[in-house]
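REQUEST FORM: STRUCTURE PREDICTION
Request ID: SP-0412
Submitted by: Lab K.M.
Chain count: 1
Length (residues): 124
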Amino acid sequence: MPEVLAAAEELAGEGVAAHVVDVTSLDRLYTAWQRTLRQGVRTATAPSVAGALRTAFPDRAPVVTVHDAASHAMAWLGSALGVHAVPLGVDAFGQSGSVHDLYELHDLLPGSIVNAALAALTLG
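STATUS: Completed
RESULT:
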């Protein structure tokens, strides 16, 4: 989390607003989104953004997900929110080293997060 907050601070310094959301239960968010999707399928209506997602992400803006595990675990957030997403995470396993060295290897340091945010902004 300190890396994400440092990246948000750097982005703010560059005039880019960034909202940091600490997702403590990815499963609960995913389940709420899936429930909303299934309701839309059953009733042939356009699904809305699930309430928990609407609360956590009130603005429609690109998303960078940062996960100290497989990046794809949070990649669905872009689809759920209807925005572009750049997922960052640990997609190769077996390396050893200090936390800093491993975060650098997997692009989880503030500089990489900033670059991912700037890339997300250009996807639209």
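NOTES: DSSP finds six helices and two strands in the chain.
Reviewed by: T.R.
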